[in-house]
Amino acid sequence: MIVGNPGRHMLQSVSYRCRVRGICTTRHVRDNKAPAVRRFWRSAGVDERSGKYVVTLDNRPIKTPNGTAVELAASQKLLAWLIAGEWETQSEFIGAHSLPLTSLVCRSIDGLGDATVRADVVDKLLKYFHTDSACLHEKYPSVLVELQQRHYIPIVEWARKEYGIEISLTSDMFALQQTRESTETLRTVLAGFSPLKLAALEKATMSAKSLLIGLALVEHHVTAEDAAMAAQVETNAQTQLWGLLENAHDIDNAALRQILGASACATIGA
After folding, report:
1. Is a pLDDT exceeding 90 seen at residue 150?
2. How far apart are CA 81 and CA 86, in angstroms?
3. pLDDT tens-digit map of 47-83
4. pLDDT for the residue numbered 249
5. 53, 72 contact by CB (below 8 A)
6. Of 100, 113, 90, which Cα lies nearest the Cα of 8?
7. What is the phi/psi pair of residue 49, to 5°?
8. How far apart are CA 209 and CA 219, in angstroms?
9. pLDDT, position 27
10. Which of 226, 233, 231, 189 is nearest to 209 (CA)?
């Protein structure tokens, strides 16, 4: 099982290939001192091979950190081009967090192709259901209550109808308890997801701190922006009350939308 940020592992894999080619990888990124990998390809593209799509760098297909070829189904042509776009837009050095779709695909192949890992991930995601931020509704201040009603309730009502489950709401996190029947119904739903869809849900859920928001996103019930607004209900309420924390909030906003946008795109054609 891949532990940590899949993008980091992708970067390590690319770094190894660069070293094999004799390309320097010892220069450090100014901000975080992580090894910087110089772009080593001229162009990225997409080829159709044996009824599947592969993303190529200088006509060579990309592979996962474990060395498995990345092949996408015929229905995922758009996704293939989006991944190629990630690579094509890299500048002189590869950004460790600028390949979110590539990271999700690698996670789905190297990690979630294993049934045991998949079961562990489903168990982990179901734990979010019992602490789901969309189910925690404060009674004050009024600005927070309003945002909860606007962003949480539509997602909760959708999930109730979509999966035919009971979802409890509370203002006390320690009192939140979902029924066993609802949990097992969702377990069956998640077990039926493809590895890539499960990888997208995993990333979205962990970023939004909500399984329900993640589900609404990968099931295409809400947009990435809708999911981001739901995930940031408390932050946005605090901002309205106390003002914006310059730079910090901007960075968080951009990072969250990048992750959620990638999670939504990864399920195109899935």
Report:
1. yes
2. 9
3. 999 999 999 999 999 999 999 999 999 999 999 999 9
4. 62
5. yes
6. 100
7. -135, 120
8. 17
9. 35
10. 231
* CA-closest candidate to residue 165, choices 144, 175, 179: 179
pLDDT in tens, 163-212: 999 999 999 878 899 999 999 999 999 999 999 999 999 999 999 999 99
CB 160, CB 132: distance < 8 Å: no
What are 264's two structure tokens? 């939504």
β-partners of residue 136 are 170
DSSP codes joined into one string, 208-260: HT-HHHHHHHHTTSS-HHHHHHHHTHHHHHHHHHH---TTHHHHHHHHHHHHH
Structure tokens at 151: 């962003």
Burial 132-142 (b: 16+ CB within 10 A, else e): bbbbbbeeeee
- pTM (2 decimals)? 0.86
Closest Cα to residue 131, out of 86, 168, 182, 90? 168
Which residue in the block uniquely carries the two structure tokens 């993640």? 214
The CA-based angle 155-3-257, given to 5 degrees, is 35
DSSP the chain: ---S-HHHHHHHHHHHHHHHTT-----B-TTT-PBPEE---S-EEEEEETTEEEEEETTEE-B-TTS-B--B-GGGHHHHHHHHHHHHT--SEE-TTS-HHHHHHHIIIIITTSHHHHHHHHHHHHHHHTT-GGGB-----HHHHHHHHHHHHHHHHHHHHHHT-----BS-GGG----HHHHHHHHHHHHTS-HHHHHHHHHHHHHHT-HHHHHHHHTTSS-HHHHHHHHTHHHHHHHHHH---TTHHHHHHHHHHHHHHHHHHHTTT-
Single-letter residue type at 104 = L
